[in-house]
Design brief:
This protein has 214 residues and is of the alpha/beta class. The structure holds D-xylitol-5-phosphate and zinc ion.
Length: 214
């Protein structure tokens, strides 16, 4: 599968409705929504009230990436705000199994996110519960960072793990994705690419989305 999930972190926050409408009219598949708490990551982005407004204008599923400590506390809140897919960091959850089940029980797709330093092998006992796994290809917190090359190897390892334990599970990549590394990521086994700067700093974001899907 070749899906693209543009990250609204790189959108113009003063013109969110305009940027969401541009994405509604594009070939993108999901809208990637980055929630940051200033503790798990150094940056603070926005929370549930903003997600609710994004939902009001979006005509594509909201792919909500929680970069917050103990995300299990907010599963219901983000369901109510309109999340369709909710991903939580392996590094931020003491009870990952419980949190993933809570996300599914609330009626959302559930995913785990791994930071660049976290080995894929740690998912051996949780990949069965996941609808998707998101591999960070930068250290989370900011848009516009440089892609970490070791990600290709991790995608291949994860593909092998999913083939063995949960072939349905989607593999998503987030950070520094562009039209140059996109084909290599799909080739390694990725299904969904997040792109912030590549889309929003492009002269023609809708054309870039098409190129990222190829
Ligand atoms: C980083 C966020 C990303 C970010 C990606 O912490 O999780 O989703 O917006 O932005 P780019 O594509 O510019 O690296
Ligand atoms: Zn993200």
């Amino acid at each position: 599968m070749h899906l693209v999930s543009p990250s609204l972190l790189s959108a113009d926050f003063g013109n969110l409705q305009r940027d969401i409408e541009m994405l509604n009219d594009s070939a993108c598949d999901w809208l990637h929504v980055d929630v940051m708490d200033g503790i798990f990551v150094p940056n603070i982005s926005f929370g549930q009230p903003v997600v609710k407004h994004i939902k009001k204008h979006a005509r594509k599923p909201l792919d909500v990436h929680l970069m917050i400590m103990d995300p299990g506390r907010y599963v219901e809140d983000f369901k109510n705000a309109g999340a369709d897919i909710l991903t939580v960091h392996y590094e931020a959850c003491t009870h990952l199994d419980r949190t993933l089940h809570a996300i599914k029980d609330a009626g959302m797709k559930a995913g785990v996110v791994l930071n660049p330093h976290t080995p894929v092998s740690l998912l051996e006992d949780s990949v069965q519960i996941c609808d998707l796994v998101l591999l960070m290809s930068v250290n989370p917190g900011f848009g516009g960072q440089k892609f970490i090359e070791n990600t290709y190897a991790k995608v291949r390892q994860l593909r092998a793990l999913c083939d063995r334990k949960n072939p349905q599970c989607l593999i998503e990549i987030d950070g520094g994705v562009n039209t140059t590394n996109a084909p290599l990521l799909y080739e390694a086994g990725a299904d969904v690419l997040v792109a912030g700067n590549a889309v929003f700093k492009s002269d023609n974001p809708q054309q870039t989305i098409l190129e990222l899907k190829r």
